[in-house]
Amino acid sequence: MPPVRPDVRPVRAPDLAGRKKRGDKLTMIAVYDATMAGLFDEAGVDILLVGDSLGMTILGYNSTVTVTLEHMLHHTRAVARGTRRALVVADMPFLTHRISDTETSRSAGSLLQEGGAAAVKLEGGQSILSSVARLVDAGIPVMGHLGLTPQSVHQLGGFRTQAKDAAAARQLLEDARGLEASGAFAIVLECIPPELAEEVTGAIGIPTIGIGAGPHCDGQVLVSYDMLGLFENPPPFAKQYAKLRGEITRAAGEFVREVKAGEFPK
Question: Domain of 178: which CATH number?
């Protein structure tokens, strides 16, 4: 990890509730390697999420379900080494927080002790509250994740907007309150109606971080590969702040042309 300059104060999980009270919007980007982590950190991003989305962006799988703890440890180490200021949060992969309390604690502890993360993120509502409370009690900061939870994509029937009816909306709000009561320091709200995200944000004292959940959350998160325009068909809610796919393809094509033409190297 690069040394922290005396004038650079690292972002810590307990800081975020105060940021919410002040109306200071949070930024989070999903990132998977040291180089990109360093660039986003330098740009002032508050939270770097080592997302299990690496299953699709890095490893070429169709979902996050195939991502293992070993995958997450490998990439968390890389991101932590490239970060000096941002809060590094690591996703707990599929099943690692649902088999037993012992397994949950062991997996989360590994992501902090071996991976260098400062916090972990868990998907789910009522069924994981005891796990959240256990981790927090052990000194491990926990970020929640409600709405579209990619690890449950098969159960949810695909990647689609969640909590669209009144009963599901009430349950999500109850889950958010439960996560806060269990000690979570923030909650990701993914692909839920904007009006519900606004209600949840106003109902709890910890920050909400939205992705496909409208503008009323306390912060926003994007997957770096979507934000940088590395995919042809990004999710409809993702804004491309650059279009690097075409630029990278152009540069690689130019290299191929120059080598074949004997123009490189001179």
Answer: 3.20.20.60
